[in-house]
Amino acid sequence: MENHATQFLGSSIMPFPFNLSPIMENSHVMNIFSNNNVPNGVVLGSNQDIRFQIAQVKEVSQKNKFIQIDQNVVKKSGKKTGEMKNREPRFAFHTRSQVEVLDDGYRWRKYGQKLVKNNKFPRSYYRCTYEECNVKKQVQRLSEDEGIVVTTYEGLHTHPAQKPSENFEQILNQMQTYLPN
DNA sequence: CGCGTTTGACCCGCGC
DNA sequence: GCGCGGGTCAAACGCG
Questions:
Q1: What is the pLDDT of residues A104-136, one digit of tens each?
Q2: What is the C-alpha separation between A181 and A179, in angstroms, rounded?
Q3: Integer distance in angstroms from CA A82 to C1' C8?
Q4: Which stretches make up the WRKY domain (predicted)?
């Protein structure tokens, strides 16, 4: 794959579990990829600072057990229950930003930080603080280009964002017209 | 005191 | 079976 391409292998079609508009306001969103290289995504908007792209997630085969972000292969966490089909949906996107933690409208609690191989920057692990909400995300800066931050979301929020934004509804509606139901 | 972060230990799957 | 790498736990700590 190409040097800076973010590749994501998900297991199902998903709505976006985060609030896009604050991210757009606070950072420069480069790309949102949801599956297999797919540059089949729909460009929802662009200007000189913000250019983002949404790609649809298709069903992947049972063999696709890996998420590959640049050269780092990350194992998907297998459930103890053996429910292969109930894998949490995950996707990743690139942002060019000075800050690593983007305000996406949800409250997160950091629960870990790890040094990953071939990367001089640590990866941070966050969990949504809302009760019963199991959404996780991890944030990592690329060592090849420290201006780029990769955020990977896992799971779906079962509740609205704590910090609603005015134009969130618009963007959500706009996205849903492109997503298959 | 309540909530979030830090950080080393622990766990677990996988490859050798 | 052992070590490695990635992911999580949880006690200690920090801060408003």
A1: 677 889 999 999 888 888 899 999 888 778 888
A2: 6
A3: 19
A4: 97-162
